[in-house]
Amino acid sequence: MNHAPSPIPGKHIDRLRLEQLEPVEKAIQGLGLPLIRYRKLKGILNALKMQIEDGGDNPDVNAFLIQALRSAVIHQVGVYAGQVAIQAIDAFQMGEEVRWKQILEGNFPVIQLSPAERFIDQMQIGYQLLKKQDFVAACQDWMQAWEIAKTMALPEMRTREEFVKAYPELEIYFENWCYDFMFELHNAGVRDPKFYGYRLQYVQEFFNQFPDEDEDTHLNFGRGQGEALWELGKHSEAEAVYTALVERLPDEAWAYIGWADQYWLMNNSQKQYDRAEAIMQQALKRPHLKDRSDLCDRLAALYDEWGKPEKSKTLRLEEKKASHVVPKPQVDLSEQKAKKRARRGRRKKK
Asked: How far is C-alpha 275 from the chain's CA centre?
């Protein structure tokens, strides 16, 4: 007989179908064969698994493998000793015959996807929509993906790293996707303001689930929270978020930059240059400020727009001088003395 291959897409594992092979595998293990003889049966069983695990298989091929496995059991231990394994093989074959009859009748069995697989599906749909610049539709799919992720997360998973340890199939996706979702919700909000509310909700839920994330994550998601509140017109709440952010991360220049931008750089800002200047000058007082040059560039740009080119020029010159100062390396005196003692010791041996 000639059959068309199973129409199951090849991107999902049919776990239910594989589970139907588990009694066969256990029965073969129970035969107590030496390893080299057990491998002869295991090889045929693995070939059958590979045919059915993600669809695209053919019942004629499967039937040959099932018969080969049955014959191999009889060859290795005989009909009587292999009775349990043979019965398990027969039961699997009967289930396959029912399945293929349903397919021929047009009743294709639905694959039951794991939560991780459903998450990946929704995530990939969103990325495809982003390629088409459809930010709203992409975020709608990603909101569904986030709902799936929430059902997978347990209270003890306090970071994304702990989450993907439990779901290693998401390791290459989840951590970066969380950032992408947060940023793209802003782009969707530009087109439909209600997505600013969704962005705020997402950030709050993210922090509730993953409170022990690193400082960089707190910086970026904290800025996202402040931006969302600002866009929603909740300026006093946004101020409180930015204030808490710079208190938590006082040496992160981008915390101050994001805060100051709301007063002069963002769309529909009220051009309160003096307030933005005060926020960034507050940052420059920090002797160990990270990304100081970025903050100086932003403040200089503010002075340019404000019509204060001299302040801009002075700031850029000062920053240029500061960036060319090469600090002298600190000398570890104890290490230097130890090296001298070692050299003296070598001379004495000579």
From this structure: 37
N-terminal to C-terminal alpha carbon distance within the chain: 91
β-pair partners for 252: 290
Reduced to 3 states, what is the DSSP secondary structure of residue 124?
helix
Q: How many CB atoms lie within 10 A of CB 238?
A: 20
147-175 pLDDT per residue, tens: 999 999 999 999 999 999 999 999 999 99
CB 65 within 8 A of CB 47: yes
- Vertex 227 angle, CA 222 and 232, to 5°: 130
Structural domain ending residue among the three candidates 68, 86, 104: 104
Asked if residues 82 and 74 have their Cβ atoms less than 8 Å apart, the reply is yes
Classify residue 125: in a domain, yes or no.
yes
d(CA 146, CA 322): 45
Residue 248's pLDDT band (cuts 50, 70, 90): very high
Q: Which domain holds residue 21?
A: 15-104
Name which of 202, 254, 196 is nearest 229 in CA terms.
196
| Domain assignment present for 302 | yes
179 within domain boundaries: yes
pLDDT, tens digit, 9 for 90 and up, residues 79-117: 999 999 999 999 999 999 998 898 888 887 777 889 999
- How large is the average pLDDT for residues 53-75? 92
Whole-number Cα distances in Å, 306 to 108, 150, 157: 67, 46, 47
Count structural domains, the chain: 3
Give phi and psi for 158, each to the nearest 5.
Answer: -95, 0
